[in-house]
């Protein structure tokens, strides 16, 4: 397992186009054109030589990121891609802010079936910035010319290499151009389609049902006017949601309550005065800080969907380099936070009562995105409410990136070798058996603090808390690096039935609580 000790080639900065310039965009377009050939000639051939650069950078709003516990450990969520080393001539480069524990790497390599660990290690390169700050990983890499030199040397022939990024922003475009390797992801110039405002417009145009609301709000006055108009159109409306255009996982959301609101001309001034009392999903968020972000990135307002029985499903898609749309999966999201808008985990697949309906609605959006040139993985989120005639599904946002539902599904796919079937919305193993899972990024408790990665492995071995490759059931952990400092862990529990998947989760929680039984966990 190479750790970047090779000779360093420092790249000539004078040859790099200016970030965001027309020259950089032209160079990026040329790189991306190569991805189609790779997809045709290399991707389908398991023995074809290739290099995959895994870039788990969360190139998102730094202030909101800083409010998520153990955020830099979220770079570990793409470690499931080490399973690509099952292809015998694939080399993989994994980039992180801080070095990964050998114990964590060994944990994932142990999941490989039919590949000696030494063979996989010889094709794995780990490179780190040794920087745990809140800046995006990609920004840290670009600021280190000698690290860039090691990375370029590790890639070798860029004609058989591509970058798999968690998010794609102008930073990732710059990195791709400087490395000479294409990105399997959306062109940053198309990212406005995935903002809250752009997503609402595109979903409406695609024919999906979206909640009543307004886009492109840039000030407190805009928000107050939009809320007043929303209430005027629906006098019975109790709550509305304000969302930052580039918020994620619900952390940029806030709820406005209309309790006690007047009618007529007094409504908008009343709302303007009440905005400082917005109920924020992000911990410690304040109205002045939120308003500053509204001015920087814009916001939307939409009606809060009420319902006695309400779910939050999502549909995942991929648009390949040839422009074909693939339906990947559905999930029922588990949400928390003050008003139930913060992503905590998910069940796969979504409920059978509306699974095929949201697949069809999501496909309308996916085809509209494909027509605009979008590439890579993304999801469409819904709010589904039970009514007398069945479930009513409201499309609420588009996430043009990998997300919290991406890595659990990839693990299921890599571990079983099976496939998702759109006709029934289920995942089937190679022998045709369905598999389900429950996954969470938020198995968290104060008494888990101090448990090291080695402790977790020891607990897993002693209690047979592992994934069984023969039965295709069991438990796989992630976010392991966050355990000791933050008492936080991620888990994917795979079962032959939904009940068995949840039973694996409950058992994992019971075992962890028993091993460090200071108090109850805050498990979902």
What does this structure look like?
This protein has 524 residues and is an alpha+beta fold. Among the domains are: 13-185, no CATH class; 212-303, no CATH class; 433-524, Ribosomal Protein S8, Chain: A, domain 1 (2-Layer Sandwich), CATH 3.30.1370. It contains 16 helices and 21 strands. The protein has helices at 22-41, 62-65, 102-109, 117-122, 137-142, 145-155, 170-179, 196-206, 220-233, 267-274, 287-297, 355-371, 406-416, 453-462, 483-486, 498-515; strands at residues 50-55, 90-96, 124-128, 161-165, 213-217, 239-244, 253-257, 279-280, 299-303, 310-311, 313-319, 325-336, 342-348, 376-387, 390-399, 419-421, 426-428, 434-444, 467-468, 473-478, 488-495. Strands 10, 11, 12, 13, 14, 15, 16, 17, 18, 19, 20 and 21 form a 12-stranded antiparallel sheet that branches. Strands 5-9-6-7-8 form a 5-stranded antiparallel sheet, sandwiched between helices. Strand 19 (467-468) and strand 20 (473-478) form a beta hairpin. Helix 1 crosses helix 7 (170-179), helix 8 (196-206) packs across helix 12 and helix 9 (220-233) packs across helix 10. The two termini are 36 Å apart. Residues 1-11 have low confidence and may be disordered.
């Amino acid at each position: 397992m190479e750790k970047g000790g090779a000779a360093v080639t420092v790249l000539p900065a004078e040859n790099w186009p200016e970030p965001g310039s027309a020259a950089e965009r032209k160079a990026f377009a040329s790189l991306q054109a190569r991805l189609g050939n790779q997809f045709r000639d290399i991707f389908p051939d398991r023995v074809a030589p290739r290099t995959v650069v895994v870039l788990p950078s969360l190139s998102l709003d730094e202030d909101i990121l800083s409010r998520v516990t153990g955020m830099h450990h979220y770079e570990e969520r793409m470690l499931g891609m080490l399973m690509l080393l099952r292809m015998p001539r694939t080399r993989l480069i994994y980039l992180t802010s801080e070095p990964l524990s050998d114990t964590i790497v060994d944990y994932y390599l142990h999941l490989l079936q039919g590949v000696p660990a030494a063979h996989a290690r010889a094709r794995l390169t780990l490179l780190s910035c040794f920087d745990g700050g809140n800046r995006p990983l990609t920004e840290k890499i670009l600021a280190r010319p000698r690290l860039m030199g090691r990375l370029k040397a590790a890639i070798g022939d860029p004609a058989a290499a591509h970058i798999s990024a968690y998010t794609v922003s102008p930073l990732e475009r710059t990195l791709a151009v400087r490395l000479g390797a294409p990105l399997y992801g959306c062109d940053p110039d198309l990212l406005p389609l995935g903002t809250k405002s752009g997503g609402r417009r595109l979903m409406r145009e695609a024919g999906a049902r979206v909640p009543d609301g307004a886009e492109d709000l840039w000030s407190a006055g805009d928000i107050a006017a939009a809320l007043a108009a929303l209430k005027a159109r629906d006098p019975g409306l109790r709550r509305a949601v304000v969302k930052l255009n580039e918020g994620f996982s619900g952390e940029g959301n806030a709820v406005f309550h209309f309790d006690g609101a007047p009618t007529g001309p007094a409504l908008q001034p009343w709302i303007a005065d009440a905005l400082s009392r917005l109920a924020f999903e992000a911990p410690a968020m304040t109205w002045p800080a939120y308003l500053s972000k509204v001015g920087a990135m814009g916001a939307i307002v939409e009606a809060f969907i009420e319902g006695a029985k309400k779910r939050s499903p999502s549909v995942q898609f991929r648009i390949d380099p040839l422009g074909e749309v693939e339906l990947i999966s559905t999930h029922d999201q588990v949400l928390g936070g003050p008003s139930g808008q913060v992503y905590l985990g998910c069940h796969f697949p979504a409920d059978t009562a509306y699974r095929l309906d949201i697949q069809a609605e999501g496909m309308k959006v996916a085809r509209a995105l494909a027509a605009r040139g979008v590439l890579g993985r993304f999801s469409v989120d819904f709010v589904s409410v039970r009514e007398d005639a069945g479930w009513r599904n409201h499309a609420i946002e588009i996430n043009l990136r990998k997300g919290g539902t991406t890595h659990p599904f990839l693990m299921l796919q890599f571990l079983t070798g099976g496939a998702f079937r759109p006709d029934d919305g289920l995942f089937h193993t190679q022998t045709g058996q369905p598999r389900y899972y429950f996954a969470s990024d938020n198995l968290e408790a104060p008494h888990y603090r101090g448990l090291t990665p080695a402790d977790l492995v020891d607990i897993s071995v002693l209690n047979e808390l592992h994934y069984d490759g023969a039965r295709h059931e069991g438990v796989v952990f992630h976010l392991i690096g966050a355990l000791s400092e933050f008492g936080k862990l991620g888990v994917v529990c795979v079962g032959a039935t939904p009940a068995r998947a949840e039973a694996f989760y409950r058992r994992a929680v019971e075992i962890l609580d028993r091993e460090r039984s200071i108090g109850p966990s805050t498990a979902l």
